[in-house]
């Protein structure tokens, strides 16, 4: 009877609870229990009543008192389309509880449902006006490691080519600076900055914040298919975060809808691990691109931007990774040290550059591996089921300045109408200014690599190492206004094909005439 009376008191009080008006009894009980529950602040959990205000207030109070949050067992929380974001600054256990996020009528599509953020405030230092590629120290003394983002708005990079063409983005870099001003060697400075127009230093939280569990379902929006992205998920803006055991599904996709920027959107932070998590590919819709031609809209469940040292461990996609009606699950920009380990996703993707990436023990589907960037791209013990094993994104110059290492992996090509199979795919005409010099990987290694081309068409000539990156480069009369630096060496060690057909260099052998091929059976 006392328990019932206390629960009734909690519910009655919670309706008017604010950060400055919380019953001492609630805080005392929550402190003794070891966590705050959503029901403490009035959540009904009946799957019909909008519980977002109670969820918002629960985290508000938990942040104030430093209390973990735990969802109520067996509850189904309905979250409507109001413009309200719950700020998470303490450990949160969503458990087996269900969250229904209704995007059919949303006040603000830029509003996250949950935002994991730091209490540490960024600042802008004085006196740093230039940086050099590979620079090892910066004249800053810090209380603890910090994330440093620099930009030169007078220089444009990533001047996009193709149907989604644009005028580029300001030259940008992000790296970790240790207490003594040394640049973390795993996050090197990759550009020369003759001038810096903006610099932001974000202190990195040293303690780990953990989000656990939760079964989230997005009731998809039905807006017109234009590039107005919905955020409506988790924004992670804090370093040292672990997401463990989360599940996200999508329901109610119809004939049209606006794209999503990512149910999990990690940006401006470092050392984030997402593990044992299930995510969902979104239906692909078409719109008119910047070149006034039809394009398929990217819509993501994973989005990374200016994020360093991010790992996905033992993660899965809920829908078929080979189903082309769903867009590739992942997109990223300005990242360093991305890892997929034991994951099953429709694709890995780096738009505006990644520095160092690792894919291991994984399976990738119809969109395969898409990337530009620099450093070392390592693929180990991975199966790719796509038209090509690696696609160097042609809209950003098909550039990778560094090495591509592929070991103990399998390629299962999905044949195009041409019957061509290419291990490394891309395009660069040498006529477009992307804002930087474009490179093919300096060295490429295929070791213990098998191509399962057993289902090849009759027109199949055998797999090519390189696609025809420039069909006009067939002799010395082809002049590149923006020279594309070609691969120097390809090493082949125990490369086999199911068809028995030998590996060819390319349908355009002239373009790759100076590439050294070292082959071992």
Main attributes of the structure:
521 residues; mainly beta; 26-stranded parallel β-sheet; 3-stranded antiparallel β-sheet; 3 helices; 35 strands; 7% helix; globular
Describe this structure in words.
The N terminus is likely disordered. With 521 residues, the chain is mostly beta strands. It contains three helices and 35 strands.
Secondary structure: elements and pairs:
Blueprint lengths: L1 H13 L9 H10 L2 E2 L8 E5 L1 H14 L3 E2 L5 E4 L6 E3 L3 E11 L11 E4 L28 E12 L11 E9 L20 E6 L5 E11 L14 E4 L3 E4 L2 E5 L9 E15 L2 E2 L6 E3 L5 E3 L3 E14 L2 E2 L12 E12 L2 E6 L2 E9 L2 E9 L1 E8 L2 E2 L3 E5 L7 E12 L10 E4 L12 E2 L3 E9 L12 E3 L17 E2 L3 E9 L18 E5 L1
Parallel strand pairs: 1-3, 2-4, 3-6, 4-6, 5-7, 6-11, 7-12, 11-13, 11-14, 12-15, 13-15, 15-19, 16-20, 19-21, 21-23, 22-24, 23-25, 24-26, 24-27, 25-28, 26-28, 27-29, 28-31, 29-32, 30-33, 31-34, 34-35
Antiparallel strand pairs: 8-9, 8-10, 17-18
Can you give me a brief rundown of this structure?
With 521 residues, the chain is mainly β. Helices cover 7% and strands 42% of the residues. It contains 3 helices and 35 strands.
